[in-house]
Amino acid sequence: MSVLARDLSWGVGQKTIVTGISLSVKEGETLGLIGPNGSGKSSLLRLIAGLRRPRSGTVEINGRDISGVSRRSLAREVAFVQQSASTETSVSVRDVVKLGRTPHRSALAGWSREDEDAVRGALERVDMAGHSSQAWQTLSGGERQRVHIARALAQTPNVMFLDEPTNHLDIHHQIEILRMVRDLDLTSIVALHDLNLAAMFCDRIMVMQGGTAVACGTPEEVLTAPLLRRVFRVDAEISCEASCGRPHIRFAL
Amino acid sequence: MTVHSGDAWERPGRLAAVLVLVLVVLAFVVALATAIGDFHIDLGTVVLAVTNRLGLTSANVNALQESVVWDLRLSRALVAALAGAGLALCGAILQALLRNPLAEPFVLGVSAGASTGAVCVIVLGIGAGGLSLSMGAFAGAFAAFGLVAALSNGATSGPNHTILAGVATAQLFNALTSYIVTTSGNAQQARDVMFWLLGSFGGVRWPDFYLLLGVVLAGLLVCLMMARALDAFTFGDEDAASLGVPVGRIRLILFAVTALVTATIVSMVGAIGFVGLVVPHAARYVVGPMHLRLLPACAAVGAVFMVLADIASRVVAEQQTVPIGVVTALVGVPFFALILYRSRPQS
């Protein structure tokens, strides 16, 4: 198992936000997290990525309990892409991607061949190599998200967590980003809002509600009309065309 | 502009060349500051006087001139350079940590606290004899920093929260200062306080220089060790954490360094505004936003700027020294306006 979480719980003050969640993701697998607003998707991702300390439960990544691993050595294996992170500083695309090398470089070390290859490779992977000297501020939303993913790739991780990476993007860019994530040779967990996109691009889907996991399985197993009514309070028709093997959801008025 | 690629800079040869250039420029402005004054001394004499004192030459220099150069002006010029470097460095650090272009050393309430401490010594005579004005200012500065830290949970509750805590603390200490001056001070004391608040390099001597040299150099070294981590703050605290930066520890250390450097400078030469705000912006405009280049650049630009400002403060008004804070603002604001204008978003 590449990512293994056992009985994770977390909250703020009296309020519990994530309750007793366990999950496992195989190497190279893409797990989608779906659920209504406030169901705890983002919090769960941050717990698994080691950005927050759980009240109880453990997370293992590549067989190591992350509570005993330094932040720096964790960041060499695990990358995290936030939803629409921005900055006021005038940085270039290349500068941003170079930040991905932070966990691999000591305080005053020079720029190595390996660093250069990682940055160049990441820029090419997201098709932004031609924009490397462009200013971050002048990028469109889709380009920014691609640069964030390039920065995550420059960390040369084997596990990647993405928190709603397609927010505020048009449908073309949503599909483009998710196709890229799926085709990467990485274990990934992606929090998503769009159920059809989750069905199209995830190997398995976990459904969250009120901080707990209510279902987990392949898109076909999980995305059923009764579940959508119960969790999302919508009526939907699910069709599954033989050609793609993925369920398609049509919402009824 | 070469903002986009910092790789070339990271070659040691280039770095050394730039360092040498900076030191030459700095030495020149310091020599200029030492030569210019009511009692004019030409540059050649300045150099000889300095080399004499360093034991490198034994040229024939007028003893009075040599004394003015060495005992009065050189220490003053060097303290000005260090103060400029330190304030600019602190400004760059705070702008990065708080992710706010308006952040500057005094946002932590340090100068307000220092002035309250100074006023307690000048007006109320607290610790008269044992406690000097600088010690009072230093204690006040750290009291204010402590209050800001307490109000913002050790600066963990977000940049805006920290800035608000700083603003509130500054208001509190400024009110205390005004209260003490209006209720207990006489006109002369009020003038003294006023002058001190606007900053002055008058009266600094060699011991001040050595103290400041130690503090600023140590601060610069610590900050350089953390320059890469500071870069990681570009997209916020959580993003830095996901890049493997121990956010809480780095922030605490850097705030403490900033408070220490600022408090030392303020207690020595008063609250000199604007340098910490403007210089990082100017330096960023030239060398880009990455801190391994930006921090030394800030220190260099800040040092040169402050020495030039000190020269200006002594020559603009005849037989008088204009408070240095007035000069830094009068020169800095138009310059800042120019940067703002040139870097405005092209929409």
UniProtKB/TrEMBL annotation, chain A:
<comment type="similarity">
    <text>Belongs to the ABC transporter superfamily.</text>
</comment>
<dbReference type="InterPro" id="IPR027417">
    <property type="entry name" value="P-loop_NTPase"/>
</dbReference>
<dbReference type="Pfam" id="PF00005">
    <property type="entry name" value="ABC_tran"/>
</dbReference>
<dbReference type="InterPro" id="IPR003439">
    <property type="entry name" value="ABC_transporter-like_ATP-bd"/>
</dbReference>
<dbReference type="InterPro" id="IPR003593">
    <property type="entry name" value="AAA+_ATPase"/>
</dbReference>
<keyword id="KW-0067">ATP-binding</keyword>
<protein>
    <submittedName>
        <fullName>ABC transporter ATP-binding protein</fullName>
    </submittedName>
</protein>
<keyword id="KW-0813">Transport</keyword>
<dbReference type="GO" id="GO:0005524">
    <property type="term" value="F:ATP binding"/>
</dbReference>
<keyword id="KW-0547">Nucleotide-binding</keyword>
<feature type="domain" description="ABC transporter">
    <location>
        <begin position="3"/>
        <end position="235"/>
    </location>
</feature>
<dbReference type="GO" id="GO:0016887">
    <property type="term" value="F:ATP hydrolysis activity"/>
</dbReference>
